[in-house]
Amino acid sequence: MLDLCDEDFDAMELVDGALALNKAINPDTQVAWAKVELKRLLDEAELALLHERDEKQRFEAFLRLFYFEWGFAGDSEAYFDSSNAFIDKVLERRKGIPVSLGALLLYFGRQLGFPLQGVTFPTQFIVELHWPDEGPRYINPFSGEYVSLHTLQAWLIGHKGPLTKLKTDHLKPADHPTIIGRWLALVKSALLREEHYTLALRCTDLALTFVPDDPYEIRDRGFIYQQLDCHQVALTDYQYFIEQCPDDPAAELLKTQLNALSHDAVTLH
User: Fold this and answer.
1) Which of 55, 63, 240, 245 has its C-alpha lying 20 to 30 A from 143's C-alpha?
2) Which residues pair with 145 in a beta bridge?
3) How many C-alpha atoms does 56 have within 13 Å on its Cβ side?
């Protein structure tokens, strides 16, 4: 089990927190290899940018290195593949999703001295670049391209509807626990889609260490236990959700599940 508190996540680099999370979900995560690869790539970046004196041009050279020479890219063909959320796999495959690519961009960029921060924008993770005495600019880590406020507004409208307005709060840099929390939800969703229920169960258990008694996490845990044929435990979790969220539309559906499960034999694992 992952034994980390919010303060631990804030004290470490985001990519290190992600590796700790990945390891807690899947013990086969290659943490040692990933750290060696991170160091190798950082050394390569420092050497490649050694003679670039202008900081802005140096940053543009870094982006070219990351996306073109190293070949990191968003995985458009298999966006929801769980491999895209595990840092060791992203380093190995050079493919990822905004949050995993963004964590790598932040790690290398900040080690190289660039003023970068992560933003959990409602539609996806983005990276803020904020030079002194200038307004912030935003980078889509999925592609490495700059995104304008107009584009971010369009993303928001597509996500929440035509009356949605872009607000300052949407662009506030996020702390690491917030980012890791959303990352965990993404990993769990991917693992459920792939029917990797044992690993998905670890995600739910981890989430409950940060937000104990969350009825929605407990509902999801009940679903996972049901898939693992642990029906009695699933019944208990479903009952808890119904009691805590009686007005949620899912509660009525779960009552039907309760009736069906109550007639099944209890399987202990």
Assistant:
1) 55
2) 140
3) 5
DSSP annotation string for 87-140: HHHHHHHSEE-HHHHHHHHHHHHHHTT--EEEEE-SSSEEEEE--TTS--EEEE
Strand ranges inside the chain, DSSP E: 73-74, 95-96, 116-120, 125-129, 137-140, 145-147
Give the pLDDT confidence of 167-222 residue by residue, as tens digits: 999 999 999 999 999 999 999 999 999 999 999 999 999 999 888 999 999 999 99
Residue 139, strand partner residues: 127, 146
Identify the pLDDT of residue 135. Answer: 93
Closest by CA position to 213, among listed 179, 241, 192: 241
pTM score: 0.92
CB 138 within 8 A of CB 119: yes
Q: Which amino acid is at 67?
A: Y
What is the four-CA torsion angle of 147, 174, 20, 36, rounded to 10 degrees? 50
- 73-74 and 95-96 strand pairing: parallel
In this predicted structure, the answer to whether residue 94 has a pLDDT above a threshold of 50 is yes
Q: Is the separation of the CB atoms in 87 and 106 below 8 Å?
A: no
Percent with pLDDT over 70 in the chain: 95
Under a CB-based contact definition with an 8 Å cutoff, are residues 107 and 205 in contact?
no
